[in-house]
Amino acid sequence: MIGHLKKEFEYFKSMPRDMRVLLITNMIYALVLPIIEIFVSAYIMRSLNSPRAVMIYQITVFTGIPITFVLNGYLLRRFSVKGLYSLGMLLSGVSISAMMYLPELNIIQVALSGLLMGISYGFFWSNRDFLAIETTVDENRNYYYGLETFFYTITGIAVPAGIGLVFVLTSRFGLLEGDAVAVYRLITVGVFALTVLSSIVVHRGNFKNPKVDRILHFRFSMLWKKLLVLSSLKGLAQGYLVTVPAILVMQMVGDEGALSSVQSISGLLTALLLYVLGRVTGPEHRIYVFSLGYVIFFVGAVVHSVLFSAIGVIIFIMCKVLYQPLHDMAYFPIQMKVINYLCDKDGRGEFSYIVNHEFGLYIGRFTGLALFIGLDAFISEVFAIRFSLVFIGLFQMLSILLARHIIKETSS
């Protein structure tokens, strides 16, 4: 076992230095992401008991992201990519604190906190996407994303389990005077510490700023338009994946402790599967990994809809935990290969494609969240919670055929 771990560590050390620095930075920040993606929504549900408020929060988050992608492009002309990357990570801690240290929470404060979180995400993801393209090549991207998503999944196990334990101890033994809000505020302290540490690490890399000339383009090749459709289909589910699990568990299973347990248990198998896939698969296997993720998501959505019970929720979240990293592990290398292919062909900088891609995601995210809010408003909250995921799953199955076509075109 020790020999195998040493072998894997030596393989990691054989990767380019800047790629390793970026991976370590993202691994540290991965400890923050479960808090942002799971417990912020749970906090809003605890405070306002309103799925619609959670969706409004996510809409403002997703609105802030593409705006900041564009702003980041202009700032990169004057500031370092490392500094802006750090700013994004630090702002996420500010956003969580701004919400959780308010004496009372209302819908306007939820929306403003969401917008600030969207700005932090915009700085984080726009610079992360560029650095990932610059520090990897097509041959090692399966390994890069396999290792990165492996750690994201591990933290998706450990962080919810640790936070869930704190909630249980708080309730059972009266720690922090039994105050759940005090637990959330304690969590924000840990978030700040981790964002500072990840910011320090990223400055150890020798990263160069991207070439930024014209940021916004409106005419693209047919291949890029196909990828934008693929990104919109990806975005359909993204809003749901950071909001619906918290809503389902808080309403149908229990409390934050139950939410933590479901996330942690379902993540263990995924973590092992991802690392193995990252090591043994190559570019030719991406469509199979991609397809498997979507099939798992659809199966989970159908089971949840049919059972519509605590068991159905648990099965869906297990499927969701499997789907998301499998999808990302295949999707990001496909996206990067298309960007590399078109940059060589059309002579544009990578950053203009990164910005434009985010608008494709935004269209999907907004459409998906609007679907939930529309079903909630015009039919019923129960109908939206029960059937919206099935609609999303059906639409996303179209992605498999489109991704296969894109892969074939960039390989020719």
UniProtKB/TrEMBL annotation:
- Matching Pfam families: MFS_1 (PF07690)
The source's domain of life comes to: Bacteria
InterPro entries in the cross-refs: MFS, MFS_trans_sf
Tell me if Transmembrane is a UniProt keyword of this record.
yes
Signal sequence span per UniProt? Answer: none
* Record-level Gene Ontology MF annotations: transmembrane transporter activity
Q: Which UniProt keywords apply?
A: Membrane, Transmembrane, Transmembrane helix
Query: Which parts pass through the membrane?
Result: 21-44, 56-76, 83-101, 107-125, 150-170, 182-202, 223-248, 260-278, 290-323, 359-380, 387-407
**What's the protein called, per UniProt?**
YQGE family putative transporter
